Amino acid sequence: MVLSPILLTCAKGLGLGLLHALESDHIAAVTTLVTRGHGTRRAAVVGATWGIGHALAIVGLGAILLALGIRMPERVSLLLDGAVIVMLVLLGAQAILRRDQHPANGHQPSTPRTPLRAMAVGLVHGASGTGALALVVMTTLPNRLHGLWYLMLFAFGATVSMMTLTSLLSLPIRAAVTRWNDRSIRALRLAAGTFSLCTAGVLFVETTAAYARTSSPSSAQVTLAASAAHHRPAIAEEEGSVDERLREVIVAHGEAGPWAVAGYRMGEYALHQLDLPHHSFDLEIVHESPAAVQFMCIVDGAAAATGASLGKMNLTHVTVDETRLRTTYRKRSSGQTLVLRPARAFVERFMNLGRRDFAAAGRVVMTLPENEVFAVEAATPEQTPR
Question: Which residues contact 216 (CB under 8 A, 6 or more apart)?
């Protein structure tokens, strides 16, 4: 039985959502809440309210990004990551400083503030991840309806997973409350707080490194700007940083190797020349190449740059021999056509490159002048309707 695209989308969103709740920063945050010592049922409520907050952010912000067809600015994403770091520090410090307080047992009423705090934590986590998730949806799914279903099932899966996780985490806490001594309880809280602080430290290093990359141009970009003034202005200045564009290639292709990045560069150039927006149904792409990995990587790169896809029926591959390698971009409404092929210097430099060098080579390709990456084989001007 062949499943419909919408069912496959739902299944994928649900499955990835179930895994998403198990990320280290999520576990670190909710563990500090669960170690307050409430029972298993109360712990499940904590997981559920975390999931509600997480879903509100994911579905709310994600739907806005999908409706507008825009990406969340990278610096905004980094600021939201910073909010996660601050939250983890506060939760970890609180767990350590209050480790001597005896938790409520199953017969004592527990404070309602813990579920509310869990919802706030979920909101922060959801907002932090929405930009990347929406980018995945926009570059891999055929339409906004599929994207919305994906976001909702993703959020639901994360909620179910977190409820299960918090219930399991509550078992040793409950045992400590009813059977163990206060020293064991303090040790559990100290471990949870330390884990939260360590996770915050790792995220801080990663986030500051990402921010540094977006704040200053790389040496390769500076050299390029100085030596290639006769070329068209670098698209990186128009459409985002090198790292942001490389991440788009990774989302679509799995890694940003040189051939996928070359396809991305061609797709960017074609959109600019044809004056088309990302995800335009007015664009048609036909890629002609051998059915071999490095040549086919160009297709994924072009899809990442333009939003074209097999599902939209505006991206096609035709198997030909290597001498006829080329990609044709056509504006359907006007007939304007652009035919691009990898530059000879590019092919000689990056043909059959070892996989361990893919990431470094992909970054190089993203900063090369256009004429060292691809050549314009033919271009048909826009035709004026009679």
Answer: none
Distance of CA 32 to the CA centre of its chain: 27
- pTM here? 0.54
Q: What angle do CA 116, 121, 127 make, to 5 degrees?
A: 125
Which SS3 state, helix, strand or coil, does residue 252 take? helix
Specify whether the CB–CB gap between 221 and 242 falls below 8 A: yes
Which residue has tokens 């997981």?
47
Cα-based torsion angle of the residue sequence 252, 254, 255, 256 in order, rounded to the nearest 10 degrees:
0
Q: Is-contact 43 162, C-beta < 8 A? A: no
Ordered by where they begin, the domains of the chain are: 5-214 (no CATH), 218-380 (3.30.1330.130)
**Poorest-pLDDT segment among 182-186, 246-250, 331-335, 337-341:** 182-186
Other beta carbons less than 10 A from residue 27's beta carbon? 18
Beta bridge partners of 374: 342
Helix, coil or strand: residue 338: strand
194-238 per-position pLDDT tens digit: 999 999 999 898 888 767 765 544 433 434 333 333 333 333 344
Tell me the range of 19-23, 77-81, 110-114, 253-257 where mean pLDDT is highest.
Answer: 253-257
Sign (positive/negative) of CA torsion 232, 237, 242, 244? negative
